[in-house]
Amino acid sequence: MRGFHFWCTHAFLGCARQCGTALTDQAVNRELVQEVGRRCAGQKIATIDLDATIIESWKKEAQPTYQGIRGYQPMMALWAEMDLVVADRFRDGNVPAQMQPLPVTKRAFQALPDTVQEFYFRGDSGYGIPCLRGKWRTTPPS
């Protein structure tokens, strides 16, 4: 699914540029997630799985990471049941993994299709976001 997502995003952006339409990666991703929701309307549960990962880079601009290598540390929010990236944020390598997870988390829940009725969040111990604590099932956090 991630390969399909990558292909669709770049195909949509390419078509938009040829037509002179200004589309962002976020707008294309939102449309893709909505289309997946329409095609898989029976999927009523969404678990947002938030994680940051280190990507090593030899670019001069790359910053040192906590692992001691130079690179970047993007944060991704995955709709776990569908194996689909619903939000992301590109970040330098020298930022703490738990830095500002809430904006990405909110964007992830906002991107989910209306067909989803139960909402869950999963993140490692670095993501102790107060509004995500406790139980909630029918309304995503705001």
Produce a short descriptive summary.
This protein is 31% helix and 23% strand.
Topology of this structure?
Elements: H1 2-19, H2 25-39, E1 45-52, E2 55-56, E3 63-64, E4 70-72, E5 75-79, E6 84-89, H3 101-111, E7 118-123
Parallel strand pairs: 1-7
Antiparallel strand pairs: 1-5, 2-4, 3-4, 5-6
Helix pairs in contact: 1-2
Commentary on this structure:
The structure is a single chain. By secondary structure, the chain is of the alpha+beta class. The protein has a domain at 43-132. The chain is 31% helix and 23% strand. The protein is built from three helices and seven strands, in the order H-H-E-E-E-E-E-E-H-E. The chain has helices spanning 2-19, 25-39, 101-111, and strands at residues 45-52, 55-56, 63-64, 70-72, 75-79, 84-89, 118-123. The protein has a four-stranded mixed beta sheet. Strands 2-4-3 form a three-stranded antiparallel beta sheet, with no helix packed on it. A hairpin with a 4-residue loop joins strand 5 and strand 6.
How much of the sequence is in beta strands? 15-25%
- The mean pLDDT is 76
Number of strands: 7
Order of helices and strands: HHEEEEEEHE
Helix content: 25-40%
Strand arrangement in the largest pleated sheet: 6-5-1-7
How would a crystallographer describe the biggest sheet? 4 strands, mixed
Question: What is the CA-atom radius of gyration, in angstroms?
Answer: 16 Å
Calculate the terminal CA-CA distance, rounded to whole Å.
28 Å
Q: Which consecutive residue ranges, at least 5 long each, have pLDDT under 50?
A: 4-13, 19-23
Number of helices: 3
- Overall, the morphology is elongated
Structural class: alpha+beta
